[in-house]
Amino acid sequence: MISVTCVAPVNIALIKYWGKRHEDLILPINDSISMTLSTDELCAKTTVTASETFEQNRMWLNGDEVPFEEGSRLTRCLKEVHRLALANGSQKVSPSWKIHIASVNNFPTAAGLASSAAGYACLVYSLARLYDIPLSEELTTVARQGSGSACRSLYGGFVQWHRGALDNGSDSVAKQIASSKHWPNMHVLILVVNDERKKTASTKGMQQAVKTSQLIRHRADKVVPERIAQLTDAIEKRDFQTFAEITMKDSNQFHAIALDTYPPCVYMNDVSHKIASFVHSYNEIMGSLHAAYTFDAGPNACLYVLEENVPELLDAVQKVFPSDSMDSGTYLRGLSVPKVDSTPKIGDVHKTKIDILDINARNAFRYIIHTKVGEGPKELSDNNSLMINGLPL
Ligand code: DP6
């Protein structure tokens, strides 16, 4: 019996992937760029065990067994890894042995964060470690077939998923633009919004968008290629102004396309819109862009902010969106934030302006997670295993 345990990060898109040109191979209609978040705060963790004595492949997700169905994304990923193992002549474990997989997210599903990206990246990375397959662009094509955005979670820092042109998808790969060390003071506040509405899943939402939205073609053909070039340049130069503007515009365009879908997909709620207004007012008060929002297929906001500006931004967020559980100890999660001192950089005039921002949203968030740019997946030592004797703990 041989076992491997790994963690893999969540990534948040700055230029969104939305729309496929091939459903099964998961080939996108446009390139996308994301930032990988630190696994210290958010991650998926997976243990894969292979044994000659296992009778069938089995998987447990957050403790519950999930079916290993023929033709599923899970089976497809496993087949692809086996193909690479054979091509690599990997000797460590025979691909004929059945495997058991246990996977967990260290963040609640309710947080509505991209759990499938971290989950599939972790699965594929763990299998690659099991069969001794090196991390490569080719491996990203395997993660891509689990969930499109997962291919970007195989690298740390800033990552571009190239749409590729070939029908077999072999050139639809993720590549790192810059490592996490390139812009280490890039931080994120995730505002987890209270919301119980049932939303259209990403896979379905983007299918409908490709079928019915007229705007989506213009986005894929014209807007995204320009933005990819501008954002790559902004990342290289650590130019937060351009980075923030493109990020916010691209989030807005993605939601415009969701609304242009017929019937429309509504992912942002009233609180999300209040957050977007707040960020624009805040930036105006500060005299330059200090924060950038982005929203995925749900109401939660990710605010990008440089480390030195986190205390002031958080202070302003707490003033405009006060919460009764602010002092509960579980409300503000992740990296600690120094309190703004008595002579904050943001002067009294600014403070007053923020106070009078006409946003009145009490208890709008479940909690706030403070995290930062991080590295790609990594293998952990055996004492981190999620299994004992091939079964979940
Ligand atoms: C809005 O990767 O979850 O987060 O490929 O169908 O599994 P599938 O979709 P998924 O879509 C993510 C969409 C997004 C934008 C992004 O991450 O680029």
UniProtKB/TrEMBL annotation:
Family matches, as SUPFAM superfamilies: GHMP Kinase, C-terminal domain, Ribosomal protein S5 domain 2-like
One matching Pfam family: MDD_C
Keyword Lipid biosynthesis set for record: yes
EC number: 4.1.1.33
Origin superkingdom: Eukaryota
Protein role: Catalyzes the ATP dependent decarboxylation of (R)-5-diphosphomevalonate to form isopentenyl diphosphate (IPP). Functions in the mevalonate (MVA) pathway leading to isopentenyl diphosphate (IPP), a key precursor for the biosynthesis of isoprenoids and sterol synthesis.
Protein name in the entry: Diphosphomevalonate decarboxylase
Encoding gene per record: LOC108039549
